[in-house]
Amino acid sequence: MSAAESSESAGDSSESTTDPSEPTDDPSILVVDNYDSFTYNLVEYLSAHAEVTVVTNTASLETIRDADPDGIVCSPGPGHPENDRDVGVSRAVLTELSPSIPTLGVCLGLEAAVYEYGGSVGRAPEPVHGKASPVHHDGEGVFAGLEQAFPAGRYHSLVATTVPSCFAVTATTDHDGESLVMGVRHRSYPLECVQFHPESVLTGVGHALVENFVRSV
């Protein structure tokens, strides 16, 4: 998780990154911003393939429902998923909307999903902020067509330590012989998450991963 940028955004404010006057066949993606400095890098990647709207994690669940997005992204952010102030509406999104709306969780988004569905999140063996690590994956979902052991930009001090049975572990990286969770996919819901940052320049396949998600919505 990276340092958050300060924000004065109102609770239910939203921002569209596309011109609503221009018709588009692109899917609509709503990004829940957990106040991370990488959020708008992620928005830029998404905007190449989708009509993107951003709301802060202080928005209401009703605001997100009313937006009626084709897909949702829960952004990275600082803090711990057990703290409501750190994840805000992301909690309700993951449990109430993700069962039916395709959702991608990134970094804190993965940690929040694991935590909300009954898993545990703890400290990583060492905090990493700006390190590229090789990621091994199952070649499905957001990883479809991506090379094995691609370099992925990591910015986090927490990891999923216990993954609930409703999730399959889809990606890992090695740390001194210990396998760290880098990706999970819900076994029944269209919910997929990655621990690393696809929008980081350190992630060689970031654009392709984001495009895979958008194509799934």
UniProtKB/TrEMBL annotation:
PROSITE patterns with a match to the protein in the record: GATASE_TYPE_1
EC number(s) recorded for this UniProt protein: 4.1.3.27
GO process annotations (BP): L-tryptophan biosynthetic process
Reactions that this protein is recorded to catalyse: chorismate + L-glutamine = anthranilate + pyruvate + L-glutamate + H(+)
Bias-annotated ranges (Low complexity): 1-21
Pathways per UniProt: Amino-acid biosynthesis; L-tryptophan biosynthesis; L-tryptophan from chorismate: step 1/5
Keywords: Amino-acid biosynthesis, Aromatic amino acid biosynthesis, Glutamine amidotransferase, Lyase, Transferase, Tryptophan biosynthesis
CDD domains xref list: GATase1_Anthranilate_Synthase
Residue span of region Disordered: 1-30
A molecular-function term among this protein's GO annotations: transferase activity
Cellular component GO terms held in the UniProt record: cytosol
EC top class, as a word: lyase
The keyword rRNA processing is assigned to this record: no
Pfam family, one: GATase
UniProt cross-references to InterPro entries, sorted A to Z: Anth_synth/Amidotransfase, AS_beta_subunit, Class_I_gatase-like, GATASE, TrpG/PapA_dom
SUPFAM superfamilies per UniProt: Class I glutamine amidotransferase-like
PANTHER family from the UniProt entry: MULTIFUNCTIONAL TRYPTOPHAN BIOSYNTHESIS PROTEIN (PTHR43418:SF4), MULTIFUNCTIONAL TRYPTOPHAN BIOSYNTHESIS PROTEIN-RELATED (PTHR43418)
The protein's name: anthranilate synthase
Species the sequence originates in: Halovivax ruber (strain DSM 18193 / JCM 13892 / XH-70)
